[in-house]
Amino acid sequence: MKILDEKGKLFGKVNLIDLIVVLVIVAGVAAVAWKLGGSAVTEAINSNAATLRYEVVCANVNPDAAEGAVADIGGQLMSNGDLLDGYVTDCVIEPHMETVVDADGNALQVEDPSARDLRFTIETKVSRAANAYAVGSQEVRVGKSHIVKTVDIEFTGTVTSVEIVDENG
Asked: pTM for this one?
């Protein structure tokens, strides 16, 4: 038995064009259903999520940009252009320290007046996948590089602490 006969029917029963039209209609209905009920699906997925609180330190930041970061406390996280279920809950400006060597060869820590360090606190709902927590496309682990990105800011830093606040979300 041929898959496609001379009349264009699959297995001699279904017209190929009709099958394509039905598949397009089903895909369209599924897309509309996802668009209208997407938040319910997202909530169902997040019902198994944990609430994660973590800190990211971004070093050597321009002082004006640092002020903009503090102004964005409460900003919603983004990843690849999509908003995530996570927020910047705090941002503290700290002095940026540099190591210099004095005339005697001693290493000294001195404040750099032209730069600041930022300490972000972030809370988000995440699901554990592949033995790690992921926020958007980024794994969250102490010592790992992390991009703090909202609609208004984007800084790169290092995760310094991770805490599971609520295992059930």
From this structure: 0.68
